[in-house]
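tokens incoming
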């Protein structure tokens, strides 16, 4: 399932584009948001497909070697440990995965050089050689190898990032989230599990889909009101000189805090501080931290923030601001 943080980032991205555009309609922005989330879920399946493509490429190399006019002993007696990987077999046979891949026509077929170069990169690594040379065979070893490939090899693989940029303007930002989702999925795979074992759904629940639509529309609805509120607490700053991303992050935080009574204030506060570290300037998280803390304390005193649900009614009026050490 796609995390709430990534959903918040998606909303931030489409709203940033919306405010830069003069003619974009709210309905089109919502469509773009849903498209962006769907593409992230596609990336999840592309990443799950990657080990299958690598195994198929390795098998094709073995078959070609055996067809040489004068094959070597190694060509005729290849090490098939990787192509027999039990975890990859489970992914390949998973009905939910197959259904999605076939429905969306997902394939790495148009990018054989990525699979070829990634395999070459993997095959020269120490951990892959150790796996291939080991006389023992276990499902856990097979699982750890695939997780290791996905966790280690994509981070500095430039061709892969170029591919992501070509496929979706958001995928570079999505990769870290989706990789963690794939790794969590694979860790749950068990030897001998049935082929109808479900994968993670796109949303945790129907509440998440409602959450993104409501948050998007409420930020737009209360845009002027929230900008004025931010202006009141940044009197020593000209709002025009404050990074537009900073203002938008604060708008999102304030809207979520005011309009979603079931989400604890600290959760919303801390989530947007974290997002600011990655999507705005070096000083933004500290600046947003201080401004939001002052605004939220005032809203609480005026009883303009009401939380509902177990453990949320009467949240303590404690200090929200994060220290500089925590921000670092």
């Amino acid at each position: 399932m796609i995390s709430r943080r990534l959903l918040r980032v998606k909303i931030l991205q489409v709203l940033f584009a919306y405010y830069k555009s003069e003619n974009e309609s709210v309905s089109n922005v919502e469509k773009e948001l849903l498209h962006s989330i769907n593409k992230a879920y596609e990336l999840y399946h592309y990443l799950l497909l990657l080990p299958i493509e690598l195994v198929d490429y390795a098998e094709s190399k073995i078959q070609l070697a055996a067809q040489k006019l004068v094959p070597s002993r190694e060509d005729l007696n290849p090490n098939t440990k990787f192509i027999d990987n039990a975890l990859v077999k489970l992914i390949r046979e998973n009905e939910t995965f197959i259904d999605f891949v076939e429905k969306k026509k997902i394939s790495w077929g148009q990018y054989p050089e990525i699979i070829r170069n990634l395999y070459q990169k993997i095959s020269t690594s120490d951990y892959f050689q150790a796996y291939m040379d080991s006389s023992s065979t276990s499902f856990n070893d097979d699982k750890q190898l695939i997780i290791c490939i996905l966790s280690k090899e994509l981070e500095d693989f430039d061709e892969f990032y170029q591919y992501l940029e070509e496929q979706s303007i958001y995928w570079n930002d999505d990769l870290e989230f989706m990789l963690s989702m794939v790794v969590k999925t694979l860790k749950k795979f068990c030897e001998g599990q049935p082929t109808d074992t479900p994968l993670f759904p796109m949303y945790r629940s129907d509440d998440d889909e409602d959450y993104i639509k409501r948050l998007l529309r409420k930020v737009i609805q209360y845009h002027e009101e929230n900008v004025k509120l931010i202006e009141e607490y940044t009197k020593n700053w000209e709002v025009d000189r404050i990074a537009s991303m900073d203002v938008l992050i604060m708008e999102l935080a304030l809207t979520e805090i005011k309009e979603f009574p079931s989400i604890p204030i600290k959760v919303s506060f801390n989530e947007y501080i974290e997002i600011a570290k990655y999507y705005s300037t070096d000083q933004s998280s500290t600046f947003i931290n201080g401004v939001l803390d002052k605004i939220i304390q005032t809203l609480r005193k005026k009883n303009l923030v009401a939380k509902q649900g177990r453990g949320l009614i009467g949240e303590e009026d404690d200090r929200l601001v994060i220290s500089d050490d925590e921000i670092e």
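note: The radius of gyration is 24 Å.
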